[in-house]
Amino acid sequence: LAMAYLAWGLAQRWCPSSLQVISFPVVQLHLNRTAMRLSQKDFESAMNQVKLLKKDPGNEVKLKLYALYKQATEGPCNMPKPGVFDLINKAKWDAWNALGSLPKETARQNYVDLVSSLSSSLESSSQVEPGTDRKSTGYETLMVTSEDGITKIMLNRPTKKNALNVEMYHEIMHALKAASKDDSAITVLTGNGDYYSSGNDLTNFTDIPPGGVEEKAKNGAILLREFVGCFIDFPKPLIAMVNGPAVGISVTLLGLFDAVYASDRATFHTPFSHLGQSPEGCSSYTFPKIMSPAKATEMLVFGKKLTAGEACAQGLVTEVFPDSTFQKEVWTRLKAFAKLPPNAMRISKEIIRNREKEKLHAVNAEECSVLQGRWLSDECMNAVMNFLSRKSKL
Ligand SMILES: CCCCCCCCCCC/C=C/C(=O)SCCNC(=O)CCNC(=O)[C@H](O)C(C)(C)COP(=O)(O)OP(=O)(O)OC[C@H]1O[C@@H](n2cnc3c(N)ncnc32)[C@H](O)[C@@H]1OP(=O)(O)O
């Protein structure tokens, strides 16, 4: 059946005229209304509505609509079953035959109801940005949506400049794991509001468990290692849409993405020494490789902030777009990427990443262990205290 669906587009040329109608299918049956008498006018109007739909609803739906149309106009399927190699006609026959002895009138009503639900769902999705029609709920700090083969994970604490609190670390891991298994071809990480992310939420340092700061640092290192590990192991193309300034861990992780698109408003800042900390996100390994050891030192050791153009020149950013057209241009491009064969993309990513995976995990472990020590240092504690007591900002 899957093969028949694939061939469906090709079949449009030679299909019978009623195939116009099966161009779009059915989603929701209002069974309680099947007894209602439908006028021929309602049915014809639904057929016209189908032709006006702007978006293709997919082959599975098309087959259902085809079956209902045939049942409504010709009654139960009494055609000979097509041969196994006649994939398209067999899929159509199966769908029609599955309706059994459903009365013509009920089929017409179901057809009209389904077209109606289809029209409203497809109209609404065409009016919104990609990724806004299928929202996954249950996240406090993220907005996760999936559409057009793209899962979008949006950091959603705009009033805190999308700083990563402990909950957000957990939710990102959860969203990545879900995205790795969903039916999307690519995954995008971006930020809501004016910032991409201001990095680690410095209030993460404030709630000290009964085991004291040592326990806090130990738990922090475990969390960080697991978090970065999810990026190392993510199996599909992972793209960052850096919509504004990026700080700390939101910058270092970019070295683990497969492409990084940035608005010209974005900046890239890793002030680890200022904060008494040290690099993470595998940046101690990826940055020198991407941009040369000296340029990496300027960023990771001296905390030099790069503009989007500079980050692009150094290879950290793939391409920079004017902020005014950033969303439109990047989404257009991503939608085209998402149409590529997903398995081929996965396999190509795998072959690129596999060579590095072991090394990246080792680097991650080492960075976390070093940071665990840094978090207990006076340098780090003072820097965090200064920020939290409003004495300092970047
Ligand atoms: C042992 C602990 C373990 C914990 C868990 C481990 C997790 C792993 C950690 C991995 C290591 C990561 C390192 C990093 O990411 S280093 C980078 C850290 N980030 C910063 O230092 C940025 C601090 N923020 C600022 O300097 C400024 O806010 C900024 C320049 C980003 C924006 O300035 P602006 O003036 O435009 O805006 P505000 O300062 O008024 O910000 C608005 C509100 O947002 C709050 N905010 C912003 N960023 C952070 C942040 N990173 N942490 C906490 N809060 C942040 C800011 O306080 C404002 O809040 P209020 O409105 O309530 O005042």
What is the H-and-E element order? HHHHHHEEEHEHEEHEEHHEHEHHH
Our count of helices gives 15
- Fraction in beta strands: 5-15%
| Spatial separation of the terminal alpha carbons | 58 Å
Task: Report the structural category.
Answer: alpha/beta
Amount of helix = 40-55%
Q: Please outline the major beta sheet.
A: 7 strands, mixed
GO molecular function: delta(3)-delta(2)-enoyl-CoA isomerase activity; fatty-acyl-CoA binding
Family: In the C-terminal section; belongs to the enoyl-CoA hydratase/isomerase family.
Catalytic activity: (3E)-tetradecenoyl-CoA = (2E)-tetradecenoyl-CoA; a (3E)-enoyl-CoA = a 4-saturated (2E)-enoyl-CoA; (3E)-octenoyl-CoA = (2E)-octenoyl-CoA; (3Z)-octenoyl-CoA = (2E)-octenoyl-CoA
Organism: Piliocolobus tephrosceles (Ugandan red Colobus)
Fold and architecture overview:
With 394 residues, this protein is of the alpha/beta class. 51% of the residues lie in helices and 10% in strands. It is built from 15 helices and ten strands. Strands 1-2-3-4-5-7-10 form a seven-stranded mixed β-sheet, sandwiched between helices. The longest helix is centred in the last third of the chain and has 33 residues, at 342-374. It is elongated, with a radius of gyration of 27 Å. The model is unreliable at 1-36 and 123-134 (pLDDT under 50). Ligand L4XM7KOE is lined by residues 160-161, 163, 166, 198-205, 216-217, 220, 223-224, 247-249, 275, 277, 280, 375, 387, 393-394. Keywords: Acetylation, Isomerase, Mitochondrion, Peroxisome, Phosphoprotein, Transit peptide. It catalyses: (3E)-tetradecenoyl-CoA = (2E)-tetradecenoyl-CoA; a (3E)-enoyl-CoA = a 4-saturated (2E)-enoyl-CoA; (3E)-octenoyl-CoA = (2E)-octenoyl-CoA; (3Z)-octenoyl-CoA = (2E)-octenoyl-CoA. Pathway: Lipid metabolism; fatty acid beta-oxidation. It is found in: Mitochondrion; Peroxisome matrix. Able to isomerize both 3-cis and 3-trans double bonds into the 2-trans form in a range of enoyl-CoA species. Has a preference for 3-trans substrates.
